[in-house]
Write a structure and sequence with these properties.
Layout: E1 5-9, E2 14-20, E3 26-33, H1 34-42, E4 48-52, H2 57-66, E5 70-74, H3 76-79, H4 89-99, H5 113-144, H6 164-197, H7 199-204, H8 212-221, H9 231-237, E6 242-244, E7 253-256, H10 262-281, H11 288-296, H12 299-320
Parallel strand pairs: 1-4, 4-5
Antiparallel strand pairs: 1-2, 2-3, 6-7
Helix pairs in contact: 5-6, 5-8, 6-8, 8-10, 9-12, 10-12
Amino acid sequence: MEISTIGLDLAKNVFQVHGIDADDNVVVRRTLRRAQLLPFFASLPPCLVGMEACGTAHHWARELIKLGHDIRQMPAAYVKPYVKRGKTDAADAEAICEAVTRPTMRFVPVKSPEQQAALSMHRARDLLVKQRTQLVNMVRALLAEFGINIPQGIRLALEMPVPREAAKIAGRLSQQALDTHAQLREIDLDLLAWQRTNDTARRLMSIPGIGPIGATALAASVTDASQFRSGREFAAWLGLTPRQHSSGGKERLGRISKMGDKYLRTLLVVGMTSLIKGVKRKPETADPRLVALLARKPVRVATVAMANHTARVAWAIMARGETYRAGHQPRLAA
């Protein structure tokens, strides 16, 4: 019988395949080694292939698309409810095969190699920022043991007596922090160069509060903005909308859900924090609606509200191919 739908459970070396025909009868259930995967799919006529959006998923999706198959990636959390019992590769592949056929399932667009390359720079940058912070904190804690206080940055008080061994350790950690900072600077320059060559990132840069880091992260993470029906849906995908606890006709809204991409959400919030600091310094040059929002809401609430608003603007720019126009802003979220 001809296979119509396949559920593919990805792994490093061992892959599980679960295939059904047009009548939902199981026609193939087998384990494949890494070297067998592409030859197996090359021998099949084009069919629907479902897989979880996990590590290496975009690579295999691109390879199977070249073979003519229709690839649909799904968030792992959306596939889990379809697992009948137990946790096995065969059960996961069967659950994927069932989930991919559901009419209400949400799918993850396949990223291009260029997008993944840009995201790799962002992931490396995020790691180096954390390592630099750890090194600076370690130096600060070490020198504090000898009475040297470093309130901000790394400014060693050389006139203070420090044992030779401790001074050597502080020097090594400081040098490593400086080397990490230099690597971060190189990544920032690479991201700036990529931003100049990417049309979407250039247009996103026109939004107040979004710089090269935020623009390139959004452009690399969102393959197709039209998959979201509205800016609010995009903001909800980023976890910037209130969590709902509604029942019995009573609607209750809590804090933001924080269910989406933490890195993108952090960049938006940090960008809006910087924007609000500028408003406090020069309120006469700021958007009057933002000044009014700050007058009636706490700073942190206003920051998150602005991040929500900016996410909606970013969606409109990515989905419609436009640039930011201050005169056409929607009402700020409260």
